[in-house]
C-alpha cells in the first residue's frame, strides 16, 4: 500500500540520511499535568524514500515511531496539524461505498440472519461430536464466513457466542471444521488491525485454549498474529541467530503479548478526555487507573520473564554477576584508557590478590620478576594476566597447567576463553591456590597491577568534592532521601517482590500473605492495598528468605536475577555474590530433608556405577530424582502414576534432563551412554507430562550427534527413531528440527549409510513439510521481540514525559540482556555459505571436518592454488586461521596471500600476506576485520622447498558474536533523539517569543538530564549503553537549544547574548545575596555551566548562524543540525555568542571613554571584570578565554585608525609610566608593578592586530627615551617576554639586543685600552735603551740619505702624531679621570628622530673626554675590519647627544643627560653664558636645549636663568651658595622628563596615509592578475619592489609622509590581512596561500581626518578600483581614506 506524506516540510534528522516526518494523530489523552496529549505517528524514512521527484507517496509499511506530544510541541514542530480551532486534526473518517450502499432495514435483516446462523451452527456442532461433520454444518459456517467479510456486520460478530463457536470449531478433531474456523477468523480480521487484534485477544484469553487447539489450529492463530504485528513493529534482527522456540511456547508468548497490549490500550483510554468517561468521580477514576497500572506491570513482567526464558538468556547469564556501572555522568566522555595499552576501566566491586606471593611492582626489572614466577609457579595454581596478549586480555584469570622450553613457555587454562593458551612468564601474577587468595582489594585501589609502572586513573565521585559538586555534572544532584523513606522499599522494588508473591500457588500464597499481615498489624490485604503498601526493608528480607523454597525453577531464576533480590537478598546482605547456581538454591530444602532421613536412620538409596550415574552424580538431589525415574522406567510395565511425580519434579528442575540430552554431543566413544540416554528419551516421549519438558533447549546436541561422522550406526538409528517419535507426537519439534537444518543432516546420513536407516526418509519428509511453519515461527519470534522492545521504549518515553518511576518487574533485566546481547558464537558453518577450491573439489570437505589428520591436496601448477569462501551476509571475520603440518614437507605452504572482493570477478583487494614458517601449525591470516567482504580468497603463492602442489589440513573461520545491542541502540537512540529534538524545538519556540523564559531553561534541562542520568544508573548495565544514551540526549536536546539561543534574530541579537549582557550589567548588584540580581545571576551561571558540561571533540566547522525570524509558523528544516549537533558545535556556538557579547561591551566602552585621562586603568579594570565574568559563567576553559580575547580584539578593530592609534599610544604611555614608577621601590613601587602586570595582560590582545604596529611605534619611542635616560633594568626584559607577540617587527627586542652588544663592545674596548697602554709603555722602555746605548756617525752621504728618510717620516708622522695627540689628550690630564661608556645604537631598531642630532666631540667636549671617544672610534673601526665581519658594508660611528652622565657638584651627585653635562661642564670655565651662544655652539634645536635647561634652572637645579634685554633667551650662570635656601646633599635627578607623543599629530596622520597607500597598491597589483591571483609571498615582494623602485608614492605625498615613507614586509602583511577582513581580497579555497581581488568595494569613512596637512574637513570617499596612478608603466598605490582595519597573523 502507498500513502501520502502530508507534512514533508516538517522533518527531524535521526541520523545520516534518516529523517522522521509527522504522519497522523492516533489517539489523545489527558496528561499527568492535566493538559491534553496527542499520540502522533512519525514515519521514519531514509533519504530518497520520500518519493522520486518530490513525490509525497510513501509505503504505509515504513518504520514509524509513536510519540506522545503536548499541544505546544505540536505547535512548535508541525503546526499544520492544528486546525483553525487549535485542536489537532485527526485521521479523516471516510465512509466506504459499501457502507453507504446498505440501508438500515437491509442491515437489520442481515444481523438477524447472522444471529440465527450462529445458533444453528452451535447446535449442529454439538450434534456431530465424534462423527464426520455433516454438510449442513459446513454450509452454515461457509455462509457465516461470507457474512463476516461484510464490514458493517463486524459488530454482530463480537457476540460472545461467536467466540464459543470459534472455540468449538478450533478444538474439533475434524480438519474441515478447523479449516472453516480459520476462514471465518480471516474474514473477520480482514477489516482492520484493531478487529484482528481483538479477535486474537478474545480467543487467547479463553480458558484452557491450548488444551483444545491442535498444531494446525494453533498455527492458524499464530499466522493471524504474525500478520497483525507485521506492520506494527517492522524491526529486523538480521545477522542475529534467534533461538528455536516451539509453537507451544510461542503461543504462550502471543497470549502474554496480547494481554499486555490490551492493558496498555486500556491505560491510554482511561486517560482520555474526562467527558468521554462514565459518570465516575475523580477518586474512582484514579483507583481504576492504579489497578490497571498494577495489572499492566505484572503482565509486562510475566511477558519479560517468559521471553527471557524463550531466548535462553537466563541460562546464558545465570552464572554471571552483572557488573555495577560506574557512577559517573553519562554526558561526559569516559577515559577509554588509563594509559597506553590499558583496557577500558571497568567498575568492579573487588579484585582478588594473593596472601603469599609478591606482585610485579615489587621487582626492579621484568627479568627478575620472570625468574621469580618461573621458580615459584606450580601446576594447579591460579594466575592473573597482567598484559594484553593476543587472545588473552589483562585481568583474565586461569589455572597454570605446564611449561616447556618453547616460546611462549607457559600454558594456562583461561576462564575467559574456556581453553588453554600459551603466554610468557612476566605476563602472569601468581594468585596461588584457593586458600592463598583473598577478596580484600577494592578495584580503585588496584589500578597499577595490570601494567607495571602505569597507574590507572579512576574518575572520583562528585560527593568527594563538595566545593565543586554543583558544576561537576550538568544536573543538580537530588536532595538526600528522607530517613523514613530510605528504610522502606520503593514502589518499583515492592511491585517486583509482589510479582513473585502473585506467582505462588494457593497455600504458599496464603503463607506469604500471613507473613505480611503479621508485620503490618494484621491489616486485611486485598489487591488495592497490596499495591500501595510501604514495606520496610526488614520485612522484605524476611520475604526473600521465604520465597526461594516456594518457587519453581524458572521463577527462582527470575528471583535470583531481579534487582530486589540482589539488593536485599540474604547473599547480598552477607557480602557474598547474589548469584548462586540454581541447583544449589533448589537443593537446600531437599538436602535438609536428606539430612532428616539420615537422622531417622533411613539408609540412603544405592545406585549402580553406570555411565548414567557418573553423568548425573554431580547434579545433587535433582540428579538422584532422575536416576529414580530411570529405575522406574526400567521396571517391567511402568505405571503412569509412578512416573508422573518424577516428571512433575523435572518440570520444576529440568537441569538433569538437559544434561542428559546434551550428553549426546559427547564423543562417539560414549556409545553405551548414548544408547542408554536414547532409550530413556524414547520412553519419556510416550508420557504427556514429558512433552512439557524443554526439549527444544537441547536439540543442538541431537543435531551434533546426527552430523558427527564418527557416530556409531546403532546410535544413529536409535537417534532417528527417537526424533521421529518426538516429531510425530509433537509437530512443534519437527519445526525446531527444520530450523536447525535437520533435513540436510538426515540426507547426509542416508547417503553415508546407503539409505539403510529406518524411518530416516519419513523423518526427513516430516521435517521438510514444516518449512512454512518454521518460517512462521521465526517471524513470530522476531515480531514478539520487536513488539516488546517497542513497548519498553514506550515506557521509557512515558518515564521521560511524566517523570514517574518505572515499576515494571524485570525491566532492568530485559534491558541488561538487550544491551549485552546473545551469548551464541558464530561458528565456522554459520560464517560461510560454501567453500570452493581450485582443484580436487571432492576433497574440499576435509578443510572443515575439524580432523587434523585429513587434508585437502591441490593439483595443478605452482602458485595457482586457492580456496574461496562465500561469506554469509554481514559477517565480519574476527579470525581466519589456516591449519598446516610440518610433516607435509614440500606440500606445506610457504607464502599465502588473502584477497577480498564483492564477487569472484572483483577479487582485487589484498587483505594480508603471510610467510609461513616450516615449524608452524596454525597460520592466522586475518584478524578483526572492520568491513564485510562477500568473497574471501586464500591463494597459496609458494610452497616449502619449491613444491608444486599443496596440502591444507583445515580452515577455521571465527565470526563476530552477534548481539541485540546494535539493534536496540539504534531504536533507543532514534526514540530518544526524536523525543528530545521535538522538546528542544518547543522550548526554543518559548524562548523566541519571550526571552525571559530563557531563565527557566536551566531548571528544564536539569530535570531532563537528571532524569536520563537516574534512568541510566537504574536500568542500563554498562558504560557503553549509558554513554550512547547520554550522547544522544545531549546532541538531541542541548545542541539544538544552543543553536537556537545563540542564533541572532532580526535585530542581530541572540537570546543568550541578551541574557549575558544582562548578567554583565547587573554583576555589581549581584554581590548582595538577598537581591533579585543575585538570584538572576545564579540562574544564568547554572545555565551556562550546564551547557558547557561536555568537552568539545573534533567536528567540521558549521556555517555562520543566519538570522531567524520571530514568526512561530515557520518551516523547521533541522537537516543542518545533523552535523551541528555535536559537543564541539555547542562550545563553538557558545564561544561565538560570548565573543559577540564581549565585542559589544568593549566597543561601547571604547566609544565612550577613549578620550579619558584614566582610560587605560579603566579599560584594564573593565577587561578584568570580563575575565572574571567568563570564569564565573564558563569556568577556566581555554575556548572561552580565547573568545574573550577575540571579542576584545573585535571591539578594537571597530575603532577608526586615529582613535586606535590614540588607544595604542595611551597603553604605551601607561606602561612607560608604570615601569619608571616601579623604580621608586617600597609599597608605591609594588603597586606600580601590580598595575603594570594587569596592563600587560590586557595588552596581549594587540597581538595579531593592526593596532600592534602603531603600539610598537609608540612603545619603541618611549622605550628608547627610558633606556637612554635612566638605563636598562630586568623589568624591561620581563615586559618584552610577556608582550613580545604584540611587536610584529620585534624592534623593542632588537633594542635590548643592541644594548647587550654595546656592553660586549665596551668590555672589548677596555681590553683594547689596556693593550694600547702596554704598547706605549713598551715603546718608552725601548727609547730609553736606545738613548743610553746609542752612538753618532759622521758620514755625509749617509747623513743625506737619513735626512730624506726623516722628512718622509715626518710627513707620515705628522698625521700619526695628530691622531695620537687626539687619542692621548687625556693622558696628561691631572684631575680624576671620568669613567666613559659608549652605547652603539643601530638606526634600524632605534627611533631615527632620537639620533638625528649629531655631536662634534672636538668642539663640545673637554679634552679628557675627547681622547676616550677618539680611541673608541679607532677601536670600532678596527673591529669592523675583521674578516668575520667583512660580509656586509662597514659601519661607522656618528656621535649623538643621547646618553646620561653623573656630575659632582659640591656634595651633590647630579644625574643629567649628555646635553646637560656639556652645558654644566662648559660653565666650569665661564661665569655665565647666553642661551643664544649655546645654540650656536651645539647646533641643537631650541626645543631640545630648553628641555635640558628647564630642570637645571628649577629649584633643585644648580643654575639660574636671568632674562636680559640685550641677550635673547637669557643668560645662564651657576647659582651662588649664599642664595641656596637650604643645604643639599646626595643624588639629584635632573634628567629631562619624558615627552609623550599625540596620535592626532602629524606623525599619526602619516602612519594612516602610509597604510592607505599600501592598501591601494595591493589592490592594483591583484587586479592586474585577475582571478588567477598571486601567492602571498610574491605579492609582498611585488609591493615592496614597487614601493622602493617606482615613483610611488608621489613626491608630494612622500614629503608629507616623512618617516612614514619607510615600508617593510610586516607593514604589507598587515595591510593584506586588513583587506582580507574587509572582503576586498579573498583566499582561494583549494589554495589558501593564493590571493586574488574579490569585488570592487567602496570604502567610506564618516569621520575620516583629512589626508592633506593643510586642508580642513573630511576627505571625499575614495574607491580602490577607480583611482589609478601610472608612471613608467608600473601601477602603484592610490590613496584611500579608510580608518578601519582587521586582524592579521
From TrEMBL:
Database matches in InterPro entries: APC_su10/DOC_dom, ARM-type_fold, ARM_CUL7_CUL9, CPH_domain, CUL7/CUL9_N, Cullin, Cullin_homology, Cullin_homology_sf
Domain of life, per lineage: Eukaryota
Subcellular localization, as worded in the UniProt entry: Cytoplasm
Name of the protein in question: Cullin 7
Domain annotation DOC: ranges: 805-984
Organism: Canis lupus familiaris
Acidic residues bias (residue ranges): 1359-1370
Bias-annotated ranges (Basic and acidic residues): 1330-1349
Amino acid at each position: 500500500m502507498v500513502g501520502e506524506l502530508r507534512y514533508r516540510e516538517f522533518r527531524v534528522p535521526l541520523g545520516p540520511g534518516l529523517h522522521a516526518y509527522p504522519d497522523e494523530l492516533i489517539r489523545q489523552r489527558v496528561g499527568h499535568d492535566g493538559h491534553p496529549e496527542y499520540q502522533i505517528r512519525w514515519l521514519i524514512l531514509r533519504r530518497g524514500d520520500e518519493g522520486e521527484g518530490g513525490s509525497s507517496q510513501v509505503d504505509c509499511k515504513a518504520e514509524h515511531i509513536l510519540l506522545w506530544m503536548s499541544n505546544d510541541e505540536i505547535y512548535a514542530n508541525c503546526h499544520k496539524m492544528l486546525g483553525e480551532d487549535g485542536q489537532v486534526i485527526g485521521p479523516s473518517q471516510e465512509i466506504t461505498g459499501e457502507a453507504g450502499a446498505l440501508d438500515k432495514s437491509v442491515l437489520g435483516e442481515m444481523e438477524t440472519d447472522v444471529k440465527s446462523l450462529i445458533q444453528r451452527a452451535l447446535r449442529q456442532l454439538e450434534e456431530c461430536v465424534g462423527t464426520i461433520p455433516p454438510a449442513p454444518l459446513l454450509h452454515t459456517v461457509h455462509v457465516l464466513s461470507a457474512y463476516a467479510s461484510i464490514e458493517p456486520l463486524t459488530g454482530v460478530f463480537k457476540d460472545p457466542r461467536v467466540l464459543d463457536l470459534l472455540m468449538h470449531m478450533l478444538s474439533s478433531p475434524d480438519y474441515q471444521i478447523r479449516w472453516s474456523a480459520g476462514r471465518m477468523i480471516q474474514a473477520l480480521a480482514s477489516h482492520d488491525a484493531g478487529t484482528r487484534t481483538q479477535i486474537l485477544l478474545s480467543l487467547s484469553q479463553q480458558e484452557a485454549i491450548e488444551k483444545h487447539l491442535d498444531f494446525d489450529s494453533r498455527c492458524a492463530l499464530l499466522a493471524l498474529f504474525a500478520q497483525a504485528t507485521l506492520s506494527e513493529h517492522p524491526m529486523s534482527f538480521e545477522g542475529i541467530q534467534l533461538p528455536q522456540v516451539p509453537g507451544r511456547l510461542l503461543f504462550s508468548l502471543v497470549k502474554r503479548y496480547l494481554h499486555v497490549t490490551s492493558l496498555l490500550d486500556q491505560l491510554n483510554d482511561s486517560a482520555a478526555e474526562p467527558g468521554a468517561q462514565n459518570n465516575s468521580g475523580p477518586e474512582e477514576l484514579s483507583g481504576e487507573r492504579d489497578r490497571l497500572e498494577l495489572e499492566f506491570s505484572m503482565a509486562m513482567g510475566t511477558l519479560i520473564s517468559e521471553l527471557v526464558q524463550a531466548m535462553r538468556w537466563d541460562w546464558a547469564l545465570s552464572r554471571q554477576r552483572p557488573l555495577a556501572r560506574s557512577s559517573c555522568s553519562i554526558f561526559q566522555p569516559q577515559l577509554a584508557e588509563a594509559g597506553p595499552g590499558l583496557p577500558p576501566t571497568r567498575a568492579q566491586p573487588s579484585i582478588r590478590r594473593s596472601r603469599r606471593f609478591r606482585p610485579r611492582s615489587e621487582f626492579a626489572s621484568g627479568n627478575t620478576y620472570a625468574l621469580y614466577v618461573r621458580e615459584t609457579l606450580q601446576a594447579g595454581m591460579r594466575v592473573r594476566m597482567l598484559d594484553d596478549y593476543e587472545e588473552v586480555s589483562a585481568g583474565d584469570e586461569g589455572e597454570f597447567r605446564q611449561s616447556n622450553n618453547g616460546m611462549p613457555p607457559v600454558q594456562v587454562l583461561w576462564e575467559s576463553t574456556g581453553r588453554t593458551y600459551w603466554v610468557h612468564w612476566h605476563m602472569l601474577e601468581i594468585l596461588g591456590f584457593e586458600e592463598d587468595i583473598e577478596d580484600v582489594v577494592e578495584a580503585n585501589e588496584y589500578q597499577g597491577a595490570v601494567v607495571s609502572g602505569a597507574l590507572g586513573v579512576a574518575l572520583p565521585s562528585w560527593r568527594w568534592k563538595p566545593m565543586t559538586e554543583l558544576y561537576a555534572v550538568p544536573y543538580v544532584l537530588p536532595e538526600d532521601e528522607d530517613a523514613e523513606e530510605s528504610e522502606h522499599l520503593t514502589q518499583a522494588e515492592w511491585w517486583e517482590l509482589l510479582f513473585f508473591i502473585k506467582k505462588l500457588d494457593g497455600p504458599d500464597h496464603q503463607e506469604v500473605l500471613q507473613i505480611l499481615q503479621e508485620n503490618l498489624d494484621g491489616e486485611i490485604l486485598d489487591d488495592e492495598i497490596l499495591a500501595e503498601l510501604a514495606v520496610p526493608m526488614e520485612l522484605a528480607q524476611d520475604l526473600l528468605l521465604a520465597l526461594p523454597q516456594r518457587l519453581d525453577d524458572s521463577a527462582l531464576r527470575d528471583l535470583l536475577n531481579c534487582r530486589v533480590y540482589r539488593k536485599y537478598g540474604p547473599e547480598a546482605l552477607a557480602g557474598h555474590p547474589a548469584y548462586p547456581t540454581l541447583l544449589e538454591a533448589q537443593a537446600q530444602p531437599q538436602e535438609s530433608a536428606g539430612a532428616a532421613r539420615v537422622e531417622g536412620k533411613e539408609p540412603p538409596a544405592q545406585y549402580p556405577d553406570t555411565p548414567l550415574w557418573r553423568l548425573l552424580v554431580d547434579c545433587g538431589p535433582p540428579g538422584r530424582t532422575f536416576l529414580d525415574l530411570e529405575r522406574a522406567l526400567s521396571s517391567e510395565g511402568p505405571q503412569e502414576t509412578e512416573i508422573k511425580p518424577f516428571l512433575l519434579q523435572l518440570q520444576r528442575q529440568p537441569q538433569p534432563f538437559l544434561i542428559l540430552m546434551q550428553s549426546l554431543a559427547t564423543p562417539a566413544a560414549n556409545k553405551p551412554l548414548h544408547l542408554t540416554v536414547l532409550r530413556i528419551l524414547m520412553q519419556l516421549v510416550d508420557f504427556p507430562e514429558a512433552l512439557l519438558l524443554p526439549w527444544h533447549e537441547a536439540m543442538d546436541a541431537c543435531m551434533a550427534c546426527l552430523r558427527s561422522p564418527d557416530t556409531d550406526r546403532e546410535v544413529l538409528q536409535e537417534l532417528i527413531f527417537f526424533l521421529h517419535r518426538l516429531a510425530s507426537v509433537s509437530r512443534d519439534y519437527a519445526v525446531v528440527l527444520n530450523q536447525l537444518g535437520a533435513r540436510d543432516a538426515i540426507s547426509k546420513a542416508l547417503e553415508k549409510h546407503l539409505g539403510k536407516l529406518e524411518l530416516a526418509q519419513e523423518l526427513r519428509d516430516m521435517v521438510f513439510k514444516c518449512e512454512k511453519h518454521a518460517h512462521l515461527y521465526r517471524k513470530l519470534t522476531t515480531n514478539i521481540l520487536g513488539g516488546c522492545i517497542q513497548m519498553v521504549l514506550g515506557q521509557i518515553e512515558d518515564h521521560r514525559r511524566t517523570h514517574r518511576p518505572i515499576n515494571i518487574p524485570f525491566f532492568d533485566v530485559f534491558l541488561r540482556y538487550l544491551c549485552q546481547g546473545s551469548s551464541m558464537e558464530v561458528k565456522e558453518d554459520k560464517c560461510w555459505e560454501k567453500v570452493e577450491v581450485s582443484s580436487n573439489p571432492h576433497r574440499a570437505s576435509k578443510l572443515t571436518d575439524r580432523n587434523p589428520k585429513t587434508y585437502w591436496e591441490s593439483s595443478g601448477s605452482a602458485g595457482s592454488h586457492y580456496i574461496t569462501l562465500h561469506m554469509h551476509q554481514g559477517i565480519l571475520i574476527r579470525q581466519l586461521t589456516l591449519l598446516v603440518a610440518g610433516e607435509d614437507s614440500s606440500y606445506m605452504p610457504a607464502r599465502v596471500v588473502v584477497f577480498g572482493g564483492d564477487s569472484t570477478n572483483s577479487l582485487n583487494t589484498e587483505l594480508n600476506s603471510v610467510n609461513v614458517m616450516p615449524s608452524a601449525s596454525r597460520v592466522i591470516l586475518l584478524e578483526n576485520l572492520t568491513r564485510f567482504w562477500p568473497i574471501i580468497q586464500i591463494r597459496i603463492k609458494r610452497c616449502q622447498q619449491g613444491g608444486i602442489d599443496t596440502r591444507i589440513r583445515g580452515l577455521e573461520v571465527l565470526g563476530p558474536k552477534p548481539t541485540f545491542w546494535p539493534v536496540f541502540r539504534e531504536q533507543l537512540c532514534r526514540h530518544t533523539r526524536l523525543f528530545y529534538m521535538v522538546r528542544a524545538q518547543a522550548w526554543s519556540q518559548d524562548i523566541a517569543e519571550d526571552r525571559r523564559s530563557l531563565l527557566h531553561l536551566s531548571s528544564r534541562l536539569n530535570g531532563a538530564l537528571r532524569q536520563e542520568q537516574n534512568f541510566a544508573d537504574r536500568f542500563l548495565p554498562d558504560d557503553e549503553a549509558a554513554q550512547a544514551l547520554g550522547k544522544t540526549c545531549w546532541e538531541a536536546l542541548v545542541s539544538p537549544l544552543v543553536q537556537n539561543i545563540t542564533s541572532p534574530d532580526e535585530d542581530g541579537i541572540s537570546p543568550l547574548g541578551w541574557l549575558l549582557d544582562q548578567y554583565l550589567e547587573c554583576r555589581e548588584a549581584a554581590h548582595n545575596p538577598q537581591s533579585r540580581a543575585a538570584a538572576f545571576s545564579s540562574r544564568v551561571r547554572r545555565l551556562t555551566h550546564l551547557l558547557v558540561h561536555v568537552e568539545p571533540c573534533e567536528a567540521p566547522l558549521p556555517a555562520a548562524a543566519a538570522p531567524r525570524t520571530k514568526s512561530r509558523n515557520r518551516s523547521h528544516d533541522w537537516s543542518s543540525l545533523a552535523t551541528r549537533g555535536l559537543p564541539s558545535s555547542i562550545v563553538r556556538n557558545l564561544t561565538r555568542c560570548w565573543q559577540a557579547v564581549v565585542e559589544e561591551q568593549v566597543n561601547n566602552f571604547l566609544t565612550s571613554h577613549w578620550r579619558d585621562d584614566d582610560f587605560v586603568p579603566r579599560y584594564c579594570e573593565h577587561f578584568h571584570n570580563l575575565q572574571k565574568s567568563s570564569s564565573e559563567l564558563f569556568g577556566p576553559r581555554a575556548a572561552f578565554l580565547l573568545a574573550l580575547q577575540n571579542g576584545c580584539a573585535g571591539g578594537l578593530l571597530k575603532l577608526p585608525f586615529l582613535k586606535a592609534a590614540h588607544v595604542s599610544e595611551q597603553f604605551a604611555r601607561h606602561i612607560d609610566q608604570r615601569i619608571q614608577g616601579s623604580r621608586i621601590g617600597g609599597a608605591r613601587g609594588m603597586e606600580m608593578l601590580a598595575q603594570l602586570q594587569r596592563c600587560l595582560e590586557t595588552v596581549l590582545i594587540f597581538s595579531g592586530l593592526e593596532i600592534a604596529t602603531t603600539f610598537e611605534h609608540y612603545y619603541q619611542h618611549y622605550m628608547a627615551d627610558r633606556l637612554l635616560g635612566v638605563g636598562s633594568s630586568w623589568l624591561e626584559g620581563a615586559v618584552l617576554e610577556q608582550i613580545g607577540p604584540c611587536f610584529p617587527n620585534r624592534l623593542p627586542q632588537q633594542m635590548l639586543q643592541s644594548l647587550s652588544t654595546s656592553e660586549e663592545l665596551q668590555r672589548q674596548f677596555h681590553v683594547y685600552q689596556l693593550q694600547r697602554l702596554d704598547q706605549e709603555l713598551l715603546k718608552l722602555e725601548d727609547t730609553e735603551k736606545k738613548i743610553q746605548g746609542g752612538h753618532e756617525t759622521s758620514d755625509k752621504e749617509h747623513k743625506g740619505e737619513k735626512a730624506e728618510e726623516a722628512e718622509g717620516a715626518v710627513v707620515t708622522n705628522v698625521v700619526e702624531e695628530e691622531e695620537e695627540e687626539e687619542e692621548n689628550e687625556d693622558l696628561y690630564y691631572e684631575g680624576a679621570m671620568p669613567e666613559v661608556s659608549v652605547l652603539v645604537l643601530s638606526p634600524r631598531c632605534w627611533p631615527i628622530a632620537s639620533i638625528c642630532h649629531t655631536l662634534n666631540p672636538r668642539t663640545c667636549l673637554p679634552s679628557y673626554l675627547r681622547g676616550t671617544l677618539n680611541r673608541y672610534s679607532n677601536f670600532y673601526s678596527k673591529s669592523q675590519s675583521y674578516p668575520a665581519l667583512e660580509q656586509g658594508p662597514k659601519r661607522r660611528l656618528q656621535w649623538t647627544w643621547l646618553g646620561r652622565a653623573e656630575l659632582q657638584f659640591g656634595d651633590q651627585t647630579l644625574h643629567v643627560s649628555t646635553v646637560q653635562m656639556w652645558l654644566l661642564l662648559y660653565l666650569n670655565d665661564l661665569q655665565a653664558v647666553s642661551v643664544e651662544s649655546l645654540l650656536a655652539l651645539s647646533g641643537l634645536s631650541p626645543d631640545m636645549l630648553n628641555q635640558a635647561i628647564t630642570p637645571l634652572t628649577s629649584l633643585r637645579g644648580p643654575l639660574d636663568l636671568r632674562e636680559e634685554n640685550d641677550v635673547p633667551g637669557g643668560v645662564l650662570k651657576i647659582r651662588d651658595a649664599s642664595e641656596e635656601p637650604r643645604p643639599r646633599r646626595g643624588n639629584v635627578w635632573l634628567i629631562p622628563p619624558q615627552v609623550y607623543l599625540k596620535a592626532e599629530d602629524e606623525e599619526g596622520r602619516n602612519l594612516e596615509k602610509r597604510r592607505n597607500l599600501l592598501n591601494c597598491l595591493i589592490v592594483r597589483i591583484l587586479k592586474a592578475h585577475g582571478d588567477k591571483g598571486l601567492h602571498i609571498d610574491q605579492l609582498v615582494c611585488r609591493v615592496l619592489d614597487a614601493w622602493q623602485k617606482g615613483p610611488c608614492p608621489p613626491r608630494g605625498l612622500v614629503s608629507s609622509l616623512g618617516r612614514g615613507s619607510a615600508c617593510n614586509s610586516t607593514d604589507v602583511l598587515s595591510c593584506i590581512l586588513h583587506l582580507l577582513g574587509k572582503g576586498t581580497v579573498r583566499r582561494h579555497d583549494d589554495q589558501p596561500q593564493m590571493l586574488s581581488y574579490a569585488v570592487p568595494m567602496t570604502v567610506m569613512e564618516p569621520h575620516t581626518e583629512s589626508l592633506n596637512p593643510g586642508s580642513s574637513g573630511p576627505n571625499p570617499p575614495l574607491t580602490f578600483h577607480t583611482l589609478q596612478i601610472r608612471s613608467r608603466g608600473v601601477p602603484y598605490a592610490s590613496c584611500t581614506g579608510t580608518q578601519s582595519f582587521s586582524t592579521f597573523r
